[in-house]
Amino acid sequence: MSKLTKQQEQELKDAFDLFDTDHSQKISKNELKRVLNALHIKASDQELSQLMSKMDTDNSGEIDFNEFKNVMAGSFFKKYSQQELKAAFRKFDADGNGYITTKELADILSRMGRHLSRNEVEAMIKSLDKDNDGRIAFDEFCKLFD
């Protein structure tokens, strides 16, 4: 992949930090499993091991930021189809009403092991909420991937 911009690198670091729930600067197999479970992605132990080995290029048993960045950069910044974006949005929109609410975002972050305050989750919502209705609509969600 071509060189990342500072903003792209920071976005990847923010994603990495969400996965790194124990703040060790490494993602363990258990942390990766917790993230997949939070997103309702079923992976067997064998599939999880394969994913880890693909990302863990230094064979340390954990994924550091550079390994994460090398694997994720190409897919993280690609242009997604409407179908892919809708599928991702549905993972967050638990009640299927077409919006991601503060509660839904807090719930998924909690399942990932990230227990943020209500104010922190509201700030995340507000950063994407362009019509100021207190929730994230699909078109606002899509702006994350522009």
Automatic annotation (TrEMBL):
GO terms for molecular function: calcium ion binding. Pfam families: EF-hand_7 (PF13499). GO terms for cellular component: myosin II complex. Keywords: Calcium, Repeat. InterPro entries: CALM/Myosin/TropC-like, EF-hand-dom_pair, EF_Hand_1_Ca_BS, EF_hand_dom. The keyword Repeat applies. It comes from the Eukaryota. The keyword Membrane does not apply. Gene3D superfamilies: EF-hand. Residues 7-42, 43-78, 80-115, 116-146 form the EF-hand domain. This is EF-hand domain-containing protein. The lineage of its organism: Eukaryota, Metazoa, Spiralia, Gnathifera, Rotifera.
